[in-house]
Amino acid sequence: MKQNFDVLIAGAGFAGGVCARVLAEKGKQVLVAERRSHTGGNAYDCKDQAGVLIHQYGPHIFHTNDKKVFDFLSRFTKWRRYQHKVIANLPRDNPEVVPAHKTTNGRFFFPVPFNLDSLKNAFGAKEGDRLGKKLLDAYPAQSQVTILELRQNPDPEIAAIADYVYEHVFVHYTMKQWGQTPEEIDPNTTARVPVRLSTDDRYFQDAYQGMPLEGYTAMFERMLDHPNIQVRLNTDARPLMKDFPGTMIYTGQADELFGFKYGPLPYRTLDFQFETVQKDHFQAAGTVNYTVDEAYTRITEFKLLTGQALPGVTTIMKEYSRAYTGEPGEAPYYAIINPENNALYSKYQADARKIPNLHLLGRLAEYKYYNMDAIAARALALAEQL
Ligand code: FAD
Ligand code: UDP
Fold first, then answer.
1. CB atoms within 10 A of CB 122
2. Residue 94 reports pLDDT greater than 80
3. Label partner for 279 (CA 20 to 30 A): which of 138, 148, 219, 382?
4. Ligand 1 centroid, distance to 243 Cα (angstroms)
5. Phi and psi angles of residue 195, each rounded to the nearest 5 degrees, phi first
6. Residue 284 is inside which H or E element, if any?
7. Residues 142-198: tens digit of each pLDDT
8. Among 111, 106, 102, 104, residue whose Cα is nearest residue 93
9. Residues with C-beta less than 6 Å from any ligand 1 atom
10. What's the 192 CA to ligand 2 centre distance in angstroms?
11. Distance between Cα 298 and ligand 2 center (Å)
């Protein structure tokens, strides 16, 4: 490399972007190599042909309790105040019950995470109310309970609620998303979506929630706009990493970095089906989860997330999950966390540790299920440590 860089960063997503900015502000000369044609990693957004701001790699809603992360990102964007809400859309299997919420075309709806209002929708107002009180008595010190915890409860009525939620929220959706049951996957995954012992119908309860006012890509462009940062798009970092003398931060797949020598790390990938609809709006919430039927897991309507004012047209996206095969064009979206895969990852991690100037950072490089705020926090910590 002709130019002298102190730091080489592979990948321009949250992990790479945050590190680049902090190190550049500390006076380091930073080269960011990004294989894709854009920055932002999986949070990248852009306008589609209809002029709707879409998230190319799945819906991204920012939420955190970490003030440091929020303050850092707020240097590069203003925020649209937005609290994400999700509705389950499922076939109505109990016509005797009169749901409190809308029922149309043989389908019915309730808030996800399943909460005390969902209970009334499912069991009718009076019975739902009674069962809700029973749940509150059973878990007096908790604001929420995981589905796996609820399924352990020996009380027959609570067990019946647990069975209902398991069947109508978790088992089919999880089979679609992971190809495995809730018991077979990492318990932290279903714990992300608990059963709420309140009527709070927000998907996240974090103190700071919102959408970057002009989008994630605009935020990343500002973050990476610094005299000490050079970004090279459409550039695989791996050839540049050979013999690079300075600090290297690698945010791509750990297995790929080492030529898959111990075998590929398993991932789930997604197929996204975008549809443009000639209407102001398509659905009642930013995301609607198809928890029981349909081949897709969920439909997101981007205008409801971004607040974009664009009359007469809206874009929706259906998500289909399947095993990642490594074929060209596929992206490894979700690490499949389990002891066997973690052990395989540890082998790559051990190899990486033998290279003193190399740091693995990010959802791919660390083989973890990080949200954006979590990886931003780790990136801030690593950059400060360096
Ligand atoms: P990435 O965003 O994957 O960035 C890594 C970058 O490295 C990529 O751009 C890749 O092209 C590049 N790269 C890889 N290998 C190389 C190489 N050899 N050379 C050069 N470049 C390379 N989080 C939330 O907080 N809220 C949400 O609502 C949310 N929704 C999500 C929805 C979906 C469908 C998915 C998949 C994830 C979601 N996330 C969400 C998680 C979020 O996407 C991640 O936390 C975040 O993108 C991780 O950032 P990263 O930098 O680690 O990885
Ligand atoms: N989940 C479910 N039904 C739902 C929502 C979530 O079974 O309606 C489970 C499923 O296993 C999913 C996990 O909870 O993978 C985490 O959901 P989350 O919405 O956090 O997933 P992400 O947005 O990261 O895909």
1. 25
2. no
3. 219
4. 26
5. -95, 125
6. none
7. 999 999 999 999 999 999 999 999 999 999 999 999 999 999 999 999 999 999 999
8. 106
9. 10-16, 33-36, 41-43, 58-61, 236-238, 251-252, 270, 333, 362-364, 370-373, 375
10. 7
11. 10
Tens digits of residue pLDDT in 16-75: 999 999 999 999 999 999 999 999 999 999 999 999 999 999 999 999 999 999 999 999
Residues with CB under 6 A from ligand 2: 88, 112, 169-170, 173-174, 177, 189-190, 192-193, 289, 291
Burial of 224 (0-12, 13-18, 19+ CB in 10 A): buried
Which alpha helices (H) appear in 5-85, and where do they start and end? 14-25, 67-74
Nearest to residue 284, comparing CAs of 318, 316, 320?
A: 316
Note the helical H segments in the chain: 14-25, 67-74, 116-123, 125-138, 147-150, 156-165, 171-178, 187-191, 216-224, 238-241, 254-257, 302-306, 339-353, 372-385
Residue 112, beta-bridge partner list:
86
Largest Cα separation within the chain, whole Å, is 75
| Coil, strand or helix at 108 | strand
Contact 173, 291 (CB under 8 A): yes
Ligand nearest to the CA of 319: 1
Q: Whose CA is nearest to atom 19 of ligand 2?
A: 193
